[in-house]
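Quick one: examine the sequence and fold tokens given here and explain what the tokens say about the fold. Here goes:
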Amino acid sequence: MDLKSMNWNKDNYLLFIDYLKSIREEEYKEFSEKITFTKYEMLGIRLPKLRSIAKDISKGDIASFLKVVKHSYYEEVMISLLVIASIKDMNELMKYFYKYISLIDNWALCDTFCNSLKIVSKNKEYFLEVIDKLIKSDKTYDIRVGLILLLCYYVEEKYLDLIFNYLDSIKSDEYYVNMAEAWLLCEIFVKYEDKGLKYLEKNKLNKFTINKSISKIRDSYRVSKEMKEYILKFKR
């Protein structure tokens, strides 16, 4: 199917859905449904293939595609997010950004989108305002998007105090928020052990998050055996 030069209309969109259905894998669908909880129906298409499809669509008329996409299936949402992540013009990207992150309802859509949003690395100061808005939201996946963007693009010494302030400010018991916090703190600890340790000594994280952070740090091969033993003192 020639997605690069597709004229996106109702009929061609239906052909596109038929194409997605033709490449689905039932066994992969069953596996995905066990680890990814979503309101969207899954077809069962592997991520590398979805990335390839999104890449082809991105070489064509993105705006027309985004007008016709229905998001009935998980894979449609993933493709749409990957297409948006490919947009290189900031103004064009932000036309779609908040609308499409509102479609995110699971960790896989969130993390894949954030990992693919390479434009952030060249526009960090701009996206700090976006992240601030997301983290101050009361929506689970808005907060997680903000945290994963920090994880992907901001684990640098100049941003550590800001990140620690965000970690302390989040008052959520949502599993996928707390797991993102733990993952972020682990990555900071591995890269900046002294500052990570100081934060462990005095933080405002809830019991689950601090204990999960310690567990992740102890799982890392980049942390010494002695340090892994030492940080057990911070468990609650």
User: Anything to note?
Assistant: The chain has a mean pLDDT of 96. The radius of gyration is 20 Å. The CA atoms of residues 111 and 148 lie 7 Å apart. The chain has 14 helices and no strands.
